[in-house]
Amino acid sequence: MKQAAIVCHRGACLVAPENTFASLEKAIEIGADVVEFDVRPSMDGVLYVIHDATVDRTTDGTGRLSDMTSKEVDRLDAGSWFGPEFAGEPVPRLDVFLDACQGRIATYVEIKDGDPAEIRDMLAVRGMLEDAWTFSFEQAIRAETRAKVPDFKRMVLFNHVGSVERAVAQDAHILEFHENDLTEERVQEAKKAGLITQMFYGGDDPSVFENAVRFGIEQMNIDHVELFRSVERNIFETAA
């Protein structure tokens, strides 16, 4: 058995505000292998690291990011909602966020909106493309990524493609499973097909983590890192 790589979902979002420099630093601090984050452009085309279409939930502002200029976005406080010690935390510009990741942690970019070629080039110029991959829930963005930047590694969801065979046919590099579609047979089939296996799970049920470890999932896209490592460690020690 081999330890799974840890992908910190929106950074270390349980101990710092999601999709911020603070959550990135915490992810690095706890030994994560990869930071997952979301990207959207402002009205004037500057790419930012933020999940929601509106800024209401994770900043002190209101409204859609796409209706705001970069100057307006740069003035937002993206930390106080989480805790007073994070007051003044900005919404990260993607270029500065990538600079903070460079040479320290790999990146998984979920494109909510934006040009995949622009994002690919930002990674490439920093020498980060080899260890990066992308995904989008928007079918048009997934198709554009595959057509325009085939060297930008792509992840697909099992619940989108429905089979390992279709993931391979779409030239995917990574196949992500969720709790309701994870089986050992599918994981082994994906590995034999040359795909990297990943699981997303935002919860804290140890039995879900146990299945992931026993089935041999290679990457875990999670919030509860400490709990997962504890479950993984217990299984390894029992098997030894």
Helices and strands, in order, run as: EHEEHHEHEHEHHEHEHEH
CATH class of the largest domain: Alpha Beta
Decide which structural class fits the backbone.
alpha/beta
Note the overall shape: globular
User: Which value, in Å, is the CA radius of gyration?
Assistant: 18 Å
CATH architecture of the largest domain: Alpha-Beta Barrel
What is the CATH superfamily of the largest domain? Answer: Phosphatidylinositol (PI) phosphodiesterase
Number of structural units classed as domains: 2
The CATH topology of the largest domain is TIM Barrel
Q: Count all strands and give the number.
A: 9
Roughly what fraction of the amino acids lie in strands? 15-25%
Number of helices: 10
Mean pLDDT: 98
Helix percent reads 25-40%
- Termini gap: 10 Å
**Sheet of most strands:** 9 strands, mixed
- The low-pLDDT segments are none
Describe this protein with a few key phrases.
single chain, 240 residues, alpha/beta, 2 domains, 9 strands, 36% helix, globular
Textual characterization of the structure:
The chain is of the alpha/beta class and about 240 residues long. It has two domains: about 15-140, Alpha-Beta Barrel (TIM Barrel); about 155-240, Alpha-Beta Barrel (TIM Barrel). The protein has ten helices and nine strands. The protein has helices spanning about 20-30, 70-75, 95-100, 115-125, 140-150, 160, 165-170, 185-190, 205-215, 225-240; strands spanning about 5-10, 35-40, 45-50, 105-110, 130-135, 155, 175, 195-200, 220. Strands 1, 2, 3, 4, 5, 6, 7, 8 and 9 form a nine-stranded mixed sheet that branches. β7 (about 175), α8 and β8 form a beta-alpha-beta unit.
